[in-house]
Amino acid sequence: MHNNYYFLRILSGQLRQILMYARLKQCFSQEKDELVLGFERQNGDDFYIKCSLGPQFSSLQFPDSFHRAGRNSIDLFSDLLLAEVQEVEMYENERAFGIHFLGNYVLVFKLFGNRANLILYRDGEYDSQFQKRLKKDDELTLNSISRSIDQSFEALQAADGEYFPLFPTLGKEGQAWLAAQGYENLHLKDRWALLQKMLQILDEGSYYVISTPKGIGFTLFPPSAEPLSQTTDPIAALNQFYVLHFSVGEFTREKRQIQEGLERNLVKSQLYLQELEKQKVIRETNVPFEEIGNILMAFLHLVPEGESKVVLEDFYRNQPITIKLNSSLSPAANAENYYRKAKNFSKELAHWEENIARKQQEIAEIQQKIALLESVETRKGLKPFLALATDKKSSEELPFKQFEIEGWVIWVGKNAKNNDLLTLKYAKKQDIWLHARDVSGSHVIVRNPQNRTVPAFVIEKAASLAAYFSKRQTESLCPVIVTSKKYVRKTKDLLPGMVIVDREEEVVLVKPELWN
Questions:
Q1: CA-based max dimension of the chain
Q2: Is the Cβ–Cβ distance between 514 and 458 less than 8 Å?
Q3: Which residues fall in a coiled-coil region (predicted)?
Q4: CA–CA separation, 386 vs 79, rounded Å?
């Protein structure tokens, strides 16, 4: 909840007390997705805000001091330098606040998770932004950020007891808390009372940094287990969360990622060994090739020409045996075939034994690494294992065109055979599949490994690529099929690149466009 409206409302109030009439002395970036603002307060003290606004993690931090590197740093929002802070405004029912500067400038901190950004407005109009990759942020108007919402009992009654229309910025933690309190099973008045209790907790101003299965968490609700830290100071809470996220959370995430990679490799090696063991059983139960050759030579006069199999007496075991034949060869030539297989068998057996030994050694080494990993307690200790954290398939250069928008990866096939490779081998059933309708073109995949809801603007951007890499490239608008990959299949009679779409979940009209 570190980017939650209810926390930011308290944080912005504290920032108002600290920054009123302070001057912005520095505003620069020296790391990707990171911006540092340095203020000089009226009492002469410095105050820093470090904004980490990456697509995977976004948060504010307030270091006591900050050393700017002599190289590889760039000044940003230079119009604000030496400008005086006039106000810190929290936008109503939104995960954003703004710092107002003399000169009618407003620097908006838009803390929308993986779409976090800083946007500068002058005289109420868009001026510039920090994260250029968030293309649509230049369309966000200053007047539209605040959302006035009726949060009365009558509004809840009109919404049939559904709280989300009244509290859209509650967040997953708030929703989980209400669910744990049995909100859905309560009558309307009891629901209202529970909502008031929740708002009271959110206003109390206690902040907890906790450990979760997914890493380090931040919450305003009292946790069931002992928190890693607890404070009533929102700035101290964010600082503790930031430090623990990277010192503990990132260590836990990397360790888990390495462990999962080792376990995947262990399962693959064990399955491969099982297949080798099956081959051993087959070898032991089958009649040796040399004996089959001897049986054929003993009964050549009983083997007809042009047959694909023959039943003869197995004098080694005193029972009939069915022998497979090459119908284009003579009986004697078939016998020679089996003698040749017998000679090669010793080589195959040696190779098989080598594979068995190699896989057994490989399994033992992986099990040893897993045991050693269990005892690692620091990020430094993970260094010998870091090479194992990268999946082999993902580390190889992919044979497709690749695009990315706000953390979503899009793959585009290069030709007919490449389309088959993309759709049939690399794409997973939960991925989104797109193709220009009724014309030939590239298959396009929006990767969705976590099976989330893909935003509409991502679909639109992927569809524009599908239209661009098709025969409709020069048209003003192109219809594009959008569906889950699980509804796309291919039969043996289809030519390369051709597939059957069992269900078109959506057809969108887009402008063919190549973007980066």
A1: 113
A2: no
A3: 335-376
A4: 43
| Residue 248 pLDDT | 76
Q: Which residue has the tokens 């995947």?
A: 264
Burial track 389-419 (b if 16+ CB lie within 10 A, e otherwise) = beeeeeeeeeebbebebbebebbbbeeeebb
Among 127, 129, 94, smallest CA distance to 112 is for 94
Contact 146/140 with Cβ under 8 angstroms? no
* 68-94 average pLDDT score: 91
How far is Cα 254 from Cα 373, in angstroms, rounded to an integer?
A: 11
**Residue 250 CB-half CA count within 13 A:** 12
Which tokens go with 129? 């932004």
Q: Which residue has the tokens 């108002």?
A: 16
Banded pLDDT at 391 (limits 50, 70, 90):
very low
C-alpha closest to that of 266 among 138, 366, 148, 193: 366
Q: How far from 501 is each of 235, 270, 435, 442, 481, CA to CA, in Å?
A: 53, 37, 10, 15, 9
**pLDDT over 70 (residue 396):** no
- Between CA 417 and CA 395 the distance in angstroms is 22
What the block records as the tokens of 84 is: 């005086």
Q: Six-digit token pair at 233?
A: 């100071």
User: What is the predicted pLDDT for the residue at 397?
Assistant: 57
Specify the pLDDT at position 388: 56
Could you give the CA distance from residue 491 to residue 173 in angstroms, rounded to a whole number? Answer: 46
Question: Residue 265's pLDDT is what?
Answer: 85
Contact 454, 407 (CB under 8 A): no
421 and 442 Cβ atoms separated by less than 8 Å: no
Burial 317-356 (b: 16+ CB within 10 A, else e): eeeebebebeeeeebeebbebbeeebeeeeeeeeeeeeee
Beta-bridged to residue 162, according to DSSP, are none
Measured distance CA(451)–CA(279) in Å, rounded: 38
Q: Which two tokens stand for residue 362?
A: 């490989």
User: Three-state SS for 404?
Assistant: strand
- Give the Å distances, CA to CA, from 504 to 144, 324, 514: 35, 49, 24
Q: Which pLDDT belongs to residue 392?
A: 43
Residue 93: pLDDT above 90? yes
Instruction: Report the b/e string of 248-259 with b at 16+ CB within 10 A.
Output: bbbbbebbebbb
Other CB atoms within 10 A of residue 119 CB: 23
In whole angstroms, what is the distance from residue 97 CA to residue 112 CA? Answer: 11
Token digits for 414?
A: 């290069």
Other Cβ atoms less than 10 A from the Cβ of 217: the count is 21
Under the banding of pLDDT at 50, 70 and 90, the label for residue 18 is very high
Phi, psi of 398 (to 5 degrees): -75, 145
Two structure tokens written together for 324: 């497979």
Backbone φ and ψ for 23, nearest 5 degrees, come out as -115, 140
Q: What's the chain's Rg over C-alpha atoms?
A: 33
Burial class of 85 by CB neighbour count within 10 A (0 to 12, 13 to 18, 19+): buried
How far the first Cα of the chain sits from its last, in Å, is 32
Instruction: Identify the three-state secondary structure at position 236.
Output: helix
